[in-house]
Specification:
The complex is a heterodimer of chains A (about 725) and B (about 160).
Chain A lengths: L4 H35 L17 H7 L3 E6 L5 E6 L5 E6 L6 E3 L6 H12 L3 H30 L14 H12 L1 H18 L29 H5 L5 E5 L9 E6 L2 E6 L5 E6 L2 H14 L4 H30 L13 E6 L6 H13 L4 E5 L11 E7 L13 H7 L6 E9 L8 H11 L4 E3 L4 E4 L3 H15 L18 E8 L8 E8 L10 E4 L8 E4 L1 E3 L2 E7 L5 H7 L6 E7 L12 E7 L3 H10 L5 E8 L2 H17 L4 E6 L8 H7 L1 H9 L3 E6 L1 H19 L3 H6 L3 E5 L1
Chain B lengths: L2 H15 L1 H9 E10 L8 E7 L5 E8 L10 H9 L8 E2 L7 E9 L8 E7 L5 E9 L2 H5 L2 E2 L4 E8 L1
Parallel strand pairs in B: 3-4
Antiparallel strand pairs in B: 1-5, 1-9, 2-3, 2-6, 6-7, 8-9
The chains are: A alpha/beta (about 725), B alpha+beta (about 160).
Keywords (chain A): Flavoprotein, Membrane, Transmembrane, Transmembrane helix
Organism (chain A): Dyadobacter jejuensis
Protein name (chain A): Sulfite reductase (NADPH) flavoprotein alpha-component
Chain lengths: ~725, ~160
Amino acid sequence: MTISIWRYSHLALAVSSFILLTLASITGIILAFKPIQEKLQPYRTESFENISLAEVIPQLRKQYPGVSNLSVDANQFVLIKGMDQDGENLLAYVNPTTGALLGEPEAPSEFFEWVTALHRSLFLHETGRFFIGLTSFLLLLITISGAALVVQRQRGWKRFFTSIVRENFAQYYHVVWGRLSLLPICIIALTGTYLSLARFQLIDTAYILPDVDYDSIQDEPALDPTLFEIFTKTPLADLQSIDFPFSDDVEDYYTLKLKDRELNVNQVTGEVLSEVRYPMSVILTELSLDLHTGKTNSLWAILLALASGNILFFIYSGFAITIKRRAGRVRNKHTPRESEYILLVGSENGSTFRFANAIQEQLIAQGKKVYVSELNNYQAFPRAKHIVVLTATYGLGNPPTNSLQFAAKLAQYPQAQSVSYSVVGFGSHAYPDFCKFAFEVDHLLSRQEWAVPLVEIQTVHDKSPDEFGHWAGVWAQHAAVSLTLPASLMTTRQDRPHTLVVTERTTLSETHDAFRVRLRPQHGLTYRSGDLLSVYPADDHRERQYSIGKVAGEVQLSVKLHPGGLGSEYLYALQPGDSITARIDENPHFHFPQKAQQVLMVSNGTGIAPFLGMIDECTSDTNIYLYCGFRDHASFSLYRASVEDYVEQGKLSGFQLARSREDNRYYVKDLLQRDESLVIETLEGGGVIMLCGSLDMQKDVVELLETICQHRLHKSVSYYQSHGQILMDCY
Amino acid sequence: MSSLFKTALLLVALLWASPSDVMAQKATSKYRCMIQMTNYMGEGAYVVISLINPKGAYEKTLYVLGPDKEWYNTLKKWHQFQSKKPSNISAITGASVTGGDRAVNVLDIETSKINAGYKLRFESAVEDNKYHAADLEIPLTTAGLSAKSEGTGYIRYVRFSPN
């Protein structure tokens, strides 16, 4: 399966590091509590921020003559070390202003020491440190590839934080929490990597404090230490530690380690004997340590713990996603050369394969020869009778990675025999270019000589089982196979919850080929023109669907009578007063647009039915143009009265009739070509073009529209389809 | 009985009761000991200061700079001695010292051992790095304790100051 390089890297990196990453995350969570616990101790002095070294150092030295070192830790606790009056070792926290002893530091917790050693080196010393450092670096790469995947998914940095389509728990929260904890995790990984590099001296953190020149040390002018400039100017908050002079000898001096430099200070004159600024690498090491451990800030430590917890979740959810995708991988029993049913999948992450696999399984169980593959593997299929394309759209209406070569391969390998095709598009209305690539594939196929449309393209919003089930049902009927797909994938509905009473059935039109039926739903049912009525003529699984026109509150169907046709003969046998059980399915992708200013309706034959209902229902001042094609005047006679009525009432702004067997032998396509400017005006003005009728008519009209769109509007039909400006419901 | 006699008797009794305690307290001197490290790169060094008898054998541990038992075996020779004759070192254990830093600690040294052929040995090790069995050895003499003594490994020099 072709997957993008980012996705591949993301997975490969995760697989290669997840064991150590799990360990580092768990220990990391525990260690985040170390600074939190430390900061709970009461050794911090309120006035800490505002005092200078001059107020602290000389006084403490007077109070504790044996003091050798003072240090300020990450919690801003001040610790002194030295010898007390009894000559015993002294190690205690002090109040820097009063010199009062606050308490002795506890021995480092053995538990935290143990966890720290595990976190840093896995108890394996240098070897362990290397692997942990490597893991840290891998985590950094995982973060980068993860960010790239989010950008790809969301179509650009600007949409980075816009909403995400929810496919399932693991996928949704992997992305949602991934975005949120991207920065903290990136910081953890970056600082961890940096610390490892510094530890292995790949980053040079060495600096040498220049030696003091003992010959030039002066012992005058003697100055009171509280007046030393370096002491008065330096706040205690800037101090890391200070080594006190070992004796009163002038050759012993103060060594101050500040946040950014280290210096030696003459203990008599206060002169700075030598000074060195830390190299950037040292400051970065200190910063990395602060950020990596959270030792300076409890809130950051909590955030680090949460981010580490998220890493654990990502490991879990990442593998859950991968396992799910692998479950969707293809196992073919038949070769492309011998298969009659070809299922081609376009999918970025492989999830669409589940649908193809479900169909494959069923067909194979019925003894059919089936081949499933990605769209890129399109080739000559010498035995093929049916091609089904199931494809998602990726990025800004682009083909998924495994479908990029489809268009070229389609041109390269025309099939030798005629093959029926059907396209199912998977997508989400959350994205602007809904199922655009699926529409494109549909058009590409429709232009192939050998390709015969079997059923109208079906779009599936957010993997809707209803929509996919609907397609599967219709396709199975036309392909004369039976598909009862598993409940986990969809629910194939055969229930007939609605009872309808026949109120009218016309006789055949003058040309003896079509009639009209009106039915009144028994209960107050909400439905709209364009919805579908499913009837079960033989009271078995066989279902026939008809587009509904809602006229005067009743269901109006236009039906072409096929001699021996299951559905049409059943409906033609109905008499007023008869009642039938059936089901009305919502068909939202073919509803009259709510907002459009102008709607262009194009139909041929009985495809006029839903339009009549829509015009009847319409109460807004939308401009509606109706273009319909019939064989001749006689076959239009069934609808003439209604249409003339609508024109008179002003509900129709324009009406054009093409008669293919009379007069100029015009098809509806020819009328549209003549009125090209109306087509352009409609699409440019945000209006909608609706198509209903036969797939042959659709093929012709779409071809025409494609030419108009490309040449005059510089966009493709699929662009308008994905933006809901061209709607189709053909059969 | 005169009070003087009573006191003397009490003193004798005490001496009998715990002669070593009283003797030890009397016979030790406290020295501040400063270890200045060289600018080596790497982890904090573990340093142990031991009293070596005139025969050249370990007699007593005076101070351990380095808190984690995990690394004590890197100080090989001292670790052998400490394993054979374990003594409680918790009161004389402090932090390790990193390159360029200094450490100042208080050592208890029996006065009788000074100028009696004993030595102070500074043994140092850095985890996974070189071990210095005798980074520095100082004769335990009045002169030795007042001089600045140069180290040969991680230690740059050591200085003492009597308390």
